[in-house]
Amino acid sequence: MARTIERIVLPSPSPGTERHLVVHRFGRKGARPRVWLQAAIHADELPGPLVLHHLMPKLAEADRNGQIPGEIMVAPFANPVGLTQVVGSVLQGRYALDGSGNFNRGFLDLRDALEEAMAGKLGNDAAANVTAIRATIEALLAEHKADDESAILKLTLHRLAATADIALDLHCDDQAALHIYCGPRQAVAFADLAARLGAAALLTAGDSGDTPFDEALTRPWWRLMERYQDKPIPNDAMISCTVELRGRADIDDATAQRDADGIFDWLQARGAISGKAPPAVAPCPATPLDGVGPVRTPHAGLWVPCVEPGTRVTAGQIVGHLIDPMLPADAGRLALKAPVAGTMFARMRPDLAKAGDRVAKVASPQSIPGRRGKLLGDR
User: Fold this and answer.
1) Mean pLDDT of the 284-297 span
2) Which of 85, 112, 369, 378 has the greatest number of CB atoms lying within 10 Å of its CB?
3) CB–CB of 240/169 below 8 Å?
């Protein structure tokens, strides 16, 4: 079918205003496999919308050629609320200015409710189980009510994506090499995507804390797989990941086109687009999210990095300096070192850092003792 564009009206935050979530649909509505692609839930992370801008003409052509057997839905700007938050001429899109928190935290955690609702309802037919689970998830989300604008936006996105087979959430870091977050059960599926995008790291966690969008979609399925191990529930009934498209300033047409090509080829390899996908290079090896060693500042100062994102580092290697220009040069310069060996995949841009800021992240192949809780952090 021809592409359709849906404008979903969000509740007005004030008299005389109205916001819309715009969703582009390709293929046949309701058909499978169903794919959900969104960008800029953190509204100031803009490489993702440009990638989807380059991807959609490819999807439109595939649709015209009858190559989309199911449905592909695209939300190029998933956060119209955050897009309005301009303070001092700077877009502030990570946190809701009404105090309701990070736009990509606090999605509904359906694990307990789904486990309870599915008790006694799973059989020995995998396809029937998947259908029943999806219907139950839809019903649970339909029952839920949200009041404030941010919660309504999150619930709307959750409802749109919850019954997809595949969901990709496109983000970016401050300054970074491309990297991907996903669950351990789905590392094989996303290792191929990581390879096609040239990712420097594929980071896995069963529960990173705070329920980001991608885990809100997948963790309920994982709970059922753990609870009902005697019942067939396909691991690929719902796969979702977060793709960090390098840094905020990495916005150019050539890079975005390559990323769009990589996503298109991966969707083709997954069967969401018919045709033969070109072979991928060697898959990106997965490493545990609790193996990420953060580089933190012991006090405030000017953060000056000296290692580029994507660089392999050794434990103890200097990755930057923390400088207090008000002190003598010999006393005002502190070397900050990698806590573990691995790939320094992301860093904070050169800026004024507060005490305790995480200014760089190093992915190591082993879990770090004591690393638990909110593994993503909130900055």
Assistant:
1) 93
2) 85
3) yes
